[in-house]
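Progress against Task 2.4 (sequence-to-structure conversion) is shown through the following example record, which the project officer requested during the mid-term review.
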Amino acid sequence: MSDQQEPKYDVVWPISKRAVKKTLAAKRIPDLNGKVIVELWDVIFRGEVIYPLVREYIKKRFPNVQFVPYTEIGNFHGAREHQVTATIADKLKHFKADAAIVGIGA
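Structure tokens generated for the chain above:
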């Protein structure tokens, strides 16, 4: 047996009290035809690849849906994060958004 002590570790119990109260999700929009969907992107995950695929998939099901691309909102991650996030609510109103797709990756 060595003279060194065994390492000690803190343990997090996975069945602890919940810190956040459970809430119900908002109801889904049953028909996206005629609706406006705004894309939000933090420029970390592969939005330039993913968003065109999502648009194509949704357009097949709902041909009259409109998209406001993520380029209209701006990157809400990084040094300018607060400037952009402060304008998101106003931009959603400006574009008369019915829904948003939020792409966040890390």
